[in-house]
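Morning F.,

Quick status update on the modeling queue. The single chain you submitted on Monday has been processed. Sequence for confirmation:
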Amino acid sequence: MLRAALVSFALLLAGGCAQVPQPTYSAETDARVDAALAGAHRAAANRARDVHRHPRETLRFFGLRADMQVVEVWPGSGWYTEVLAPVLRGTGRYYAAQYARGHRDTLPYRLKTLEGFERKLRERPEVYGEVVITELSAPEYTAIAPPGSVDLVLTFRNVHNWAKSGNAEAMFAAFYTALKPGGVLGVVEHRARPGSSLEAMIVSGYMTEDWVIAAAQQAGFRLAARAEINANPRDGTQHPKGVWSLPPGYAAGEREKYAAIGESDRMTLRFVKP
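Structure tokens below.
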């Protein structure tokens, strides 16, 4: 089905992205993001990655506002939670759609990550006391927020996991169900060379833009815009341990070599639910 969607993508978008309204920006939200990024609650290791992950520019591109209902998909240990939770506290709502404890794909390392995330929230209630944790492991667990209630769904470096599990279609459908009409899906993902096979993508952790766009379009989304905010031209994407060779993982060793490359080359895509 994704192959057919890829053909549709090429035909429909050959002339550029679909014409949709641009997000509005808020000086108040910008100030809140800056305050969150500078906050003492952030882990030093997370703060050091700002230069690679460009959180301020990325959230601006996705149109974040402090009054929004926002779902972050699989926030893991909470890198973006450190930014989103204080920004939305008191004025919006932040749903952390975490791994589902009862799902077959929730392996011990993911359970450990989830426990660490919950501990992080408990230790700083003044920052995280309003975070709503939900479960997402499609197709069994998809109630990430009340249907049609969400302004913005965000996913950072997760699509390759769903390609490997074969449940990308169900995951994108869950995002579509949660969003309001006109709501935005923001995707950041490791970017493979065009034409890479699905097998190569699953092994390397890098996905082609065409594959990700097709998966979103199959769920009903329209591509609104692309950005090079998280691009890294030093990353040739061909590494012995795939994307995990690069920081922060360094799975292939040779820390000096891979530190000089930096984190992965990434696509940044904004979709809209019609």
